[in-house]
Amino acid sequence: xxxxxxxxxxxxxxxxxxxxxxxxxxxxxxxxxxxxxxxxxxxxxxxxxxxxxxxxxxxxxxxxxxxxxxxxxxxxxxxxxxxxxxxxxxxxxxxxxxxxxxxxxxxxxxxxxxxxxxxxxxxxxxxxxxxxxxxxxxxxxxxxxxxxxxxxxxxxxxxxxxxxxxxxxxxxxxxxxxxxxxxxxxxxxxxxxxxxxxxxxxxxxxxxx
Amino acid sequence: xxxxxxxxxxxxxxxxxxxxxxxxxxxxxxxxxxxxxxxxxxxxxxxxxxxxxxxxxxxxxxxxxxxxxxxxxxxxxxxxxxxxxxxxxxxxxxxxxxxxxxxxxxxxxxxxxxxxxxxxxxxxxxxxxxxxxxxxxxxxxxxxxxxxxxxxxxxxxxxxxxxxxxxxxxxxxxxxxxxxxxxxxxxxxxxxxxxxxxxxxxxxxxxxx
Lengths: 209, 209
Hints:
The structure is a homodimer.
Chain A: H1 2-5, H2 21-36, H3 46-53, H4 57-63, H5 67-78, H6 90-110, H7 112-123, H8 125-152, H9 162-179, H10 189-199
């Protein structure tokens, strides 16, 4: 148990939770290993994870309130990190957000485990709610904030509900990544989407006519 | 077994398969009843369905090649039927297709069983593939055909890949229905989506400036 008490010297305890990156990594990797071995999410217990990671159950509970929170971090550890926004324009920020979504879609496709975990998460309402609150909801808020700034700066029309604009911008990429596993996610898709959406689907009428 | 041999007089045997709507209905309703009672899709056997519906196993196999095909029809029986296209314009056809998607989304939300069956289907690759081939792929082909006609008639720009336009048009509604169970699906959403997408997200520049 002494391992769990050793803080890296540069790190102050956060919210009273003793931290040690090596231990956290061991626990997350132990969970991944069990998932890779085909253990269904529903059958993974904190006890089994503790045994696989070579730590005590208390060591896990000191870091995560429960199985749900731990899984959210496991899934996050396999996904590319969230990007920095350039802040140069709404258009550029949206391209960066959509590009991150495209990359997560690709990661989800190439990693059978990650895909499998996502599918299993959806069948567990508690784990799905934890993932939604920790990961999806903040992403949505960020997207809405970028769109709101776009309206203020005159880049986005103001006569359409922002929630709807959000789904218009992110829906096509989400559909491709999550609902059509065979659809292409080529490089440049993020730019193409944003520019097509800004311009609209109507043919550009020739100014000569 | 004699019940299964009785054809309604107005109906000729189709593709050599003896049909009786009453028997089919009993089998589909029997399957629904088992699902409503909480039996997981994976545990439903043709034998159990036959017993619940009061028919022999052969009666089921005469109508469906297997469990997968039967489930597809069970799911279809709970969904609103696919709509007729008005054919007056691409815009009108897209509105009708999106409105049907909105109604299916609402049906999926209000019926806990239907929702549950959808989630379970996704965890069974064979059932999902059968549903995809029988239901989703034809819908996608129809949407692409409407868009292709729109390009021919000058309603849709021709410089964007049709597959991408398809996801731009249907992605937002799919995202709302399937990925954000809390998002609103209000009346008029189909029209609003199509018109916003055709026009684009850029502010309409005032002709006076």
